[in-house]
Automatic annotation (TrEMBL):
This is BPI/LBP family protein. InterPro entries: Bactericidal_perm-incr_a/b_dom (IPR017943), BPI/LBP (IPR030675), BPI/LBP_pln (IPR045897), Lipid-bd_serum_glycop_C (IPR001124), Lipid-bd_serum_glycop_N (IPR017942). It comes from the Eukaryota. Residues 43-268 form the Lipid-binding serum glycoprotein N-terminal domain. Residues 286-484 form the Lipid-binding serum glycoprotein C-terminal domain.
Amino acid sequence: MAPLPSIFVFFLVLFTSSNLFAPSHTLLLQSEPSDEAFTSVLISQNGLDFLKDVLVTKAISSMIPLILPRIEKSVKIPFVGNIEMVLSNVTIYEIGAPTSYIRPGDTGVTIITSETTCNLSMNWYYSYSTWLFPVDVTDKGRASVQVHGMEVGLTIALENNGGILKLSLLECGCHVHDISINLDGGASWLYQGMIDAFEDQISSAVENAITKKLQEGMVKLNSIIQDLPKEIPVDDNASVNVTFVDDPLLTNSSIGFGINGLFITRENVPPVRYSTWGFQLPVFCQDPAKMLGISLDEAVFKSAAGLYFDTEYMQWIVDKVPDQSLLNTAGWRFIIPQLYKKYPNHDMDMNITLSAPPDIRISEDNIGATVYADLVIDVLEEEDVIPVACISLVIRGSGSVKIVQNNLAGSVKLNDFSMSLKWSNIGTLRLYLIQPVIWTAIQTVLLPYANSHLAKGFPLPIIHGFTLQNAEIILTASRITVCSDVSYADEENLRYPYP
């Protein structure tokens, strides 16, 4: 059935990083140093309550109409004979759950609805024969049933099974406290008392039908979870590793998940090893009412930088600038006279390649990045590209981040840079004369290119149908924390997001 997947699949993949909502709570995730949870999520009680409301609403909409088995009863009464009573087309067509709650505990997550009401419709049939009359006496009509004070509950255990969340149903049940039956049609006033004798059987049928639906839903849910991928694609080159690290952590008011969270090459998920090494990833949200707290360790960003560096993705040819004269040796005749003398009026380009992965540092006040690059000045002669000099650059910038839908996006600006001559085929270069040209290339080419990609961001692992709302971003030492509420747009199928 559909109701259960809504909440627990949401638990499964919702976010990255380790987080807490108050200094008095610390989330401890157990892992080997090579299998750390660089991303995790803690869902607060407000978040659990929101998810519970979504769950209950979807449970009701997916469960009704619910057809119950045919109910028959035969009674032999002295001087009257055999009385056959049949209830058919017994259908639950309305369920109301005014009170419900969700509580995590030591053994699992418990969800209970109480004071639940349930309305049913059915057909009734009545037949008896007696030695006093040679013919059968029959009657039939419609009936309505109102169930009051019904309680439905289940407890589910959550555990890490090779990097995938496994759900096990520990307890599941439904109990009907009160029921009333009203007959219509035929001589209903005559048979009302006898039909009331069906109360226990109707109550039992309702309890069994709802319990069976919950059990079927758990089987379906666990199957869905087992089929979920262990990575979320970012683009053609990279994915985010969303394998779980250790079991979920449950307190009396929250659920925490540890996820690897590092960038990996597409379809290159490393095997998950069970963890034995302990480490602590404390994250705090200033507003404890927020439903979610998402924290990203700077190792996540460094893994992205390292991956793109290893795939040789970080290389640019600068052949267009606002002042195109700077890409002709004539524009350099006063900056590097020997270049113009050797290659007069030749077109040029600048080949920029990172020499090391960018170094990203997150502090309480700033996100800083240091980029190491080699800039090769090329002269274009007919079909030949002639490298004439190489300048080593150390570019220092600062960045900012924001939430765009369910993506963590950002931008970067240039603070300063330094450079040194690595090699030259045209003699010694006066770097202070070249610096304005390099500054222009960085500001007009590299930064706009980088910001165009950063503006798109990368996806937080959030189930399709849920959206972050009123998100706040907090910088701490080596971490970016997103504290947010969520909204939900009803979807027929909840699934992993794909770009």
